[in-house]
Write a structure and sequence with these properties.
single chain, alpha/beta, Rossmann fold, Dihydrodipicolinate Reductase, domain 2, 2 domains, seven-stranded parallel β-sheet
């Protein structure tokens, strides 16, 4: 008998992507499909790309409707997961795609989110050292953010091996779906098309402490990240360029060998051949991160570039990876690292 997965926040981009992936999962069937303001509408009106579920009606995010599922995904706006999670049974398996439970440091949460602290759940990035065992034993998982996934997987092995300094600069561009589905003036097509723009500049983006936490855990170092996000004129994708001082004598070959050794057995992190650089189009629709690195010998800096689909590996795909581990299924069930091109 198939296991059941329910989705709260199914009307959003990440929720819709979760439903798409669940439809192709061999061991999970779609249970309750819940939404906020769009409750009562047919799913086909909201997500016409999902004809198999078109006649299902979005229900209100009622704990009673969700509690019977084997796994519950919370794809809600930041700040809305905590109250719903508290209303579900303590042994209910939950993956939260929002930020509510990602940060261990209450002070960092209040500084960057300006909201009451709900606590901390197991951080669900399976490829970070030691995390699979924790995820497999957990009933509550905080799914990582899209930017932290791209940056952490690109840099964690290099920091752990002492090849780069722990003060890092990151400039990363995201497609417009990263801002969610709520319409705003800054996301109008006439504002975005043909233009790139920075936002939340100067160390104030809410993913900054999450990056520092994930990289600090992976390396045992006190990591500091200077993060500048950019809005790119595309629906999906993240391209992150990270740089840090090199340790003495480290070459491009050293960086590449370190990354390759760390991820040679991973299904969803691909270190590209030297000279080939990540591009967002190659990860479109797939649960994959593409990574490449080079040593800038003239300045003594490492340059590490990573790309992913922010709605798949940066959200719904990683959430399904975590759910598979929690349920004792093959981690790759329902997932593919294959992109769609052109």
């Amino acid at each position: 008998m198939a296991l059941t997965a329910s989705v709260a926040g199914a009307s959003g981009y990440a929720g819709g992507e979760l439903l798409r992936l669940l439809l192709g999962h061999p061991d999970l069937q779609v249970g309750a499909i819940a939404a906020g303001s769009k409750a009562g509408r047919r799913l086909g009106e909201v997500h016409p790309q999902l004809p198999a579920l078109a006649d299902r009606t979005l229900i209100a995010a009622d704990p009673d409707a969700l509690r019977g599922a084997d796994i519950v995904f919370l794809a809600l706006p930041h700040g809305e997961s905590a109250s719903l999670a508290r209303a579900l049974p303590a042994d209910q398996r939950i993956v939260d795609l929002g930020a509510d439970f990602r940060l261990e440091d209450e002070g960092a949460w209040k500084a960057f989110y300006n909201d009451s602290y709900a606590g901390h759940w197991v951080y669900g990035m399976p490829e970070l050292a030691g995390m699979r065992a924790e995820i497999s034993e957990a009933t509550r998982i905080a799914n990582p953010g899209c930017y932290p996934t791209a940056v952490s997987l690109a840099l964690a092995p290099l920091l752990a091996e002492g090849l780069i300094d722990s003060t890092i600069s990151v400039v990363a561009a995201s497609g417009t779906s990263g801002a969610g589905r709520t319409p705003t003036e800054t996301l109008l097509a006439s504002q975005v098309m043909g233009s790139m723009s920075p936002y939340k500049v100067g160390g104030v983006h809410q993913h900054t402490p999450e990056m520092e936490q994930a990289l600090g855990r992976a390396s045992g170092l006190g990591v500091r990240v200077s993060f500048t996000p950019l809005l790119a004129p595309m629906p999906r994708g993240i391209l992150a360029t990270s740089s840090a001082d090199l340790a003495d004598g480290v070459t491009s070959e050293d960086l590449h060998e370190c990354l390759h050794a760390a991820y040679a057995a991973e299904r969803f992190v691909h270190v590209l051949p030297q000279g080939q650089w990540p591009q967002t189009s190659s990860t479109l629709g797939g649960n994959a991160v593409h990574v490449q690195a080079a040593a800038d010998a003239r300045t003594g800096r490492a340059v590490v570039v990573s790309a992913l689909d922010n709605l798949v590996k940066g959200a719904a795909g990683q959430a399904l990876q975590n759910a598979n581990l929690m349920l004792g299924l093959d981690e790759a069930s329902g997932l593919s690292d294959t992109g769609v091109a052109p």
